Amino acid sequence: MSTKQKVTIIGSGNWGSSIARVCAQNTIRHSDTFEREVHMWVFEEKVDGKNLTEIINEKHENVKYLPGINLGENVIAVPDAKEASKGANVLVFVLPHQFVYKVCESLKGVISDDCVAISLIKGLDYKDNNLLIFSEEIERILGIPCAALSGANIASEVAEEQFGETTIASESAKHGELFLKLFHTEYFDCNVIADSRGLQVCGALKNVVALGAGICEGLNYGNNTKAAVIRRGLIEMRKFGKAFFGGVRTETFFESCGVADLITTCSGGRNKKVSAAFIKSGKSIEEIEQEMLNGQKLQGTTTSQEVYSFLSARNMTHEFPLMTAIYRVIYENASPECIARDLRTHKAIVEKE
Amino acid sequence: MSTKQKVTIIGSGNWGSSIARVCAQNTIRHSDTFEREVHMWVFEEKVDGKNLTEIINEKHENVKYLPGINLGENVIAVPDAKEASKGANVLVFVLPHQFVYKVCESLKGVISDDCVAISLIKGLDYKDNNLLIFSEEIERILGIPCAALSGANIASEVAEEQFGETTIASESAKHGELFLKLFHTEYFDCNVIADSRGLQVCGALKNVVALGAGICEGLNYGNNTKAAVIRRGLIEMRKFGKAFFGGVRTETFFESCGVADLITTCSGGRNKKVSAAFIKSGKSIEEIEQEMLNGQKLQGTTTSQEVYSFLSARNMTHEFPLMTAIYRVIYENASPECIARDLRTHKAIVEKE
C-alpha cells in the first residue's frame, strides 16, 4: 500500500461511536498506515436544536448515543454518507441492518478502487426465504472484499477501555493484518480468523438462544436447565452454520464471537430480559417490545421468526429442537415448558469405541 | 449379562444422595437389567442421637445432606463400605477424593468379578508432581473398568427433577449403554462419549476458571472482561487436556461436562464467590475459607496450586497465562488486575488463507 489508508465509519450509534473511538486511537498509533482523520457518517438529527454532527465535531462527544466519552479530536462527523466515504480505503459498516442496502447503493463510485470493508452489522438478512450474510451482500453490491467483526463486546465497556476480546474474520490474511492494526488495542484484544460466515451466524443466532435463556428465567428454572439450553443453543448454532453455510468451522465457536458472546448475551442483554418478561407477564412479545423497547423490534425475535421460516421451508425444524421450541413459545402459544421438554433426547448417542 | 446387576453407591453426600435417587428410579424402571435394591455406603454419623443410616432406611431421606427429598424405598443405607459392595456388579464412586484410595483398598476381593465402576469424583489427584485421573486410579487399584460422569449438575436441582443434562464417558460402548440405563431419565438427560480424560480434566479445571470469574467480580469488572476470562479458561482447559493427557477431544468441550458446567460454575458456585470475597476483603484465601466454608478447602484453590506446580515443573506457566495469573493473584500477592492484563495477546494470530 503506497498511500495512507483513509478510514470511514458508516454508522454512529452506541457501538459505532465506541468503535470509531478505537479506530481513531489506532490511526494515530499507526500513522504510517492510516490517515489521522477518521470520518464517521452520522445520520443527522437535532439535539437541543443543534445538529448532532456539529456537536460531535465541537465537543468530540456523541452526546446522544455515547454520552460522557471523548471520541478523539480526529473523529470527524459527516452528515452525508457519500461525502463521508469519498476516497475511503477502509469502510467500517456499523449500522442497523435495515439501512445497509440503501447506504451501499449510495457509495458506488465514491470509494477508492482498492477499498476494503468490514461489517459489524448484527444479524443475517432474510430474503426470499433465504438467509444472507451481510459481509457478502456488501461485497456483492460494492464489488469490494468485506471482512467481519463480532465478539463479546458491550459498547459502553469498550468505550471505557475495560479489557475485552473480539474476533475479526477475514478471508485474506493481508486484510486481516490491516484490520488488526485498525482495531487491536491493549484493552480490545482482537483475534483474526478466516471463517467469516461462522462469525456472522454466531452473531445472529446467539440472540435467539438468549430468548431461550430468558424463557428459563421467566419460568424460574434452575441453573442446570439454563446451562442445558445455552449448551444446546451453541450446538444448534454450529449445526445451523455447518448445514447451511459452507466453510463454517468448529474453532470459530471457541472464539469471542462464539461461546463468549453467547455467554454474555444469555446472562444480560435485552433479548433475555424481554423474553423473561414475556413469560412472567403473559403479554404478547409485541406488547413487551412496546413497553420495554419503545416499540423497537428485538433482534432475537425477528431472527427467531426468520430461522423458523427458513427451517420450515426445508422440513428441518425437528433437527433444531431448541430454535423451534423458542419460536413456538413466543409466536405459537406453545407451553413455555417445551423449552426444556423438547430437548429430551430419549435415547442418547453412544459413540463407537 | 445373565444375572441382574447389583448397584452400589459409594458415597452419600448431597450429590451422592441425589444420584442414588436417580439410580434407584432406574433400577425399578429397568428391572430386567438391575436388582431393585441400590446399596448406598454411608459414612456413619449421629443425627440427633440416632445413626444416619437408620434414619435413611426408615424415612428414605438423607436428613443431613439432602433434606426434604425422598430417595426411594429401594435405596438401602449401609454403614460399612465392604458390606455395601458385597457382590456388586456396578460401583458408583461419588465421594470426596481424599477417601478414594482407602475405600478402594477395602473393596478388593469383595466385588463381583465382572464389576464395572463409574467415577463422579471431582478433581484430579496430585501425586509426585503428576496429575492423575481418578477413574484410572480406580481401574488400577481394583483391576476393573471405570467410566466417569460429569456435567452442569447442581445436586439439589437434580433431586427436584428439574431438567438438566450430563455427560457419561465410557471407553466401552457396552458399559456406556449400561450406565445410560442406570442414569438417564426424562429430567437427567445423559449423553455418552468416549473421552473420559477430557471429561475429568474439565471437571477439575473449571473450578480454577471460576476463581478467575470471581476475581473479575471482586474487581467490579464488566461483562466483556468476564466473558474473555471464561473463554480463555475454556481454551486453556482444552490446551491443558490435549497437552498432558492423551486422547482428549475438542468435542468433549461442547458437552455438558465442558462448556455447560463451566458456565454454571462461573456464574454461581462457591469457587467464584470465595474468590470475589478474597479480592473485596483483602483477607487471605485461608481466612475466607475459614469464614465462608468453615475451614474446608475449596476445590478450585487446591487445584489451582496443583496445576501451577505441575506447569512450573515443566517450565510451561507462560503457555497458560490465565491459570498462572489466577494462582499468582491468590497465592503470590500479584496485583489482581493481572487477571485481564496477562491475557493481552499483543500480537494476534492471523490464520493462513
From TrEMBL, chains A, B:
Keyword terms of this UniProt record: NAD, Oxidoreductase
GO BP: any one term: carbohydrate metabolic process
Record-listed E.C. numbers: 1.1.1.8
Glycerol-3-phosphate dehydrogenase NAD-dependent C-terminal domain span: 195-339
GO cellular component, one term: cytosol
Pfam families for the chain: NAD_Gly3P_dh_C (PF07479), NAD_Gly3P_dh_N (PF01210)
InterPro entries per the UniProt record, alphabetical: 6-PGluconate_DH-like_C_sf, 6PGD_dom2, G3P_DH_NAD-dep, G3P_DH_NAD-dep_C, G3P_DH_NAD-dep_euk, G3P_DH_NAD-dep_N, NAD(P)-bd_dom_sf
Protein family per UniProt: Belongs to the NAD-dependent glycerol-3-phosphate dehydrogenase family.
Identification of the protein by name: Glycerol-3-phosphate dehydrogenase [NAD(+)]
Native source species: Rhizopus stolonifer
Lineage, highest ranks first: Eukaryota, Fungi, Fungi incertae sedis, Mucoromycota, Mucoromycotina
